Description:
Layout: E1 10-12, E2 15-17, E3 20-21, E4 30-42, E5 45-56, H1 59-68, H2 73-78, H3 80-88, E6 93-99, E7 103-104, H4 105-123, H5 128-141, E8 145-146, E9 151-156, E10 161-167, E11 178-181, H6 183-194, H7 201-215
Antiparallel strand pairs: 1-2, 3-4, 4-5, 5-6, 6-9, 7-8, 9-10, 10-11
Amino acid sequence: MAMAALITxxxxxxxxxxxxxxxxxxxxxxxxxxxxxxxLDIDGEFVKFTGLGVYLEDKALSFLAxxxxxxxxxxxxxxxxxxxxxxxxxxxxxxxxxxxRTLSGPEFVxxxxxxxxxxxKSVGTYTDSEAKAIEEFxxxxxxxxxxxxxxxxxxxxxxxTLRIFFSKDDTIPEHEHAVIENKPLSEAVLETMIxxxxxxxxxxxxxxxxxxxxxxxxxxxxxx
Length: 224
């Protein structure tokens, strides 16, 4: 694992995001890019609902270094292009969302899918194919319930395959619950978390800070 000494886990509330994981169907470990809390302001109080984190293939480091090495953490945080390079980069991502408060599957997926549709419409990628994919996405969650500590995992391939996994804790399941073949939707899931209108600014902050440290480590080599 490249940069192993620098890569640490992150704690989000009571949730532990380990430094590395091995996603289902992979023989390689992915490193933790960053993690943060998702919440909403309700009647003047910030209510925390979910801890979010994303794991990336090692080759994400060299891909991002070519453009972003030497930038400050503040410059990374302020650059939508940096986060879009993570979202659209030619490497696999493994996203974990673990619940802090109980959410039903339909309640959870309603907001997520609305955010995804709004993004795809804003960038002109929402067609009949994406509408069908959104219905598949909603259908995957219809019979689910997520108590505190339970998790949703998304495995995203550069070709646009989105695999969805459910777990009653932070254990990574061996088998997916659903597979959706739609690249705009797959990218929109992560875009809504860390893109232009993020549900978790803390997640973006974590990514910017950690990648600044990764890419500006004196021993970092673009060939890694």
